Amino acid sequence: MYCEIYQGKTDRTHVGLASTVVISCLEGATLSRQGYHVYMDNYFSSPALFTSLFENFDTGAFGTVRHNRRGLPKDLMTKKPVNVTQRGDSQFKQKGAIAATVWKDKKNVSVISTIHDNSLTEVSRIVQNEGQFQRQQLQCPKMVADYTNHMGGVDCCDQYIQYYFFGHKTLKWPKSVFFKMLEIIKFNAYRLFQISPNHQQTTSMTFLEFSKSVATKLIAGYTVRDITL
Known about the structure:
Elements: H1 17-28, E1 37-40, H2 47-56, E2 60-64, E3 90-95, E4 98-104, E5 108-113, E6 120-129, E7 132-141, H3 142-164, H4 173-195, H5 207-219
Parallel strand pairs: 1-2
Antiparallel strand pairs: 2-5, 3-4, 4-5, 6-7
Helix pairs in contact: 3-4
Domain PiggyBac transposable element-derived protein: 3-190
Organism: Mytilus coruscus
Protein name: PiggyBac transposable element-derived protein domain-containing protein
């Protein structure tokens, strides 16, 4: 795991703070120029960053995008794009290495990518039809489906950590960073434990039970039972 603590402006101010974070983490973790693909949410993504990653760092990128980013097709990235009215509708455009698409789910989902084309797949959704809820197959751009598959783990990690996070306010910020990283490491260990072939009989263990088990084993050799005379 690699992280970089923000400590003020850097010499990359011309690319913006969000883009600087992505590039710095790639280079710090020695992952740039090795053909990797980077997935990110709309806080970081922009056509300028994706073009830079593709041309200068040999790195593909993909993510949801905000409509006000410079370089996006204006007729596509609007609140009501043309021909995207019904659930399952989509529109696609490409300029150079960057592909952009809008897909109608419950609301519009806007994404850009340098690693996808206009391929479609199918996803399952629960829809209401004449007062009845039914499962229905909808056409969906493959890039949107890939985003759900690859970014879902990030949301899951944040959700699990929030359930039992013991962090509290402190005057020394390194403590907060340390305990948050500890929680992320614990969640990663839990996910590896779940998929391990050596623990198939205990995969039903909850995250809380796993956390208690880890804590018990860590302090096992350092506890002494009180003796009453």
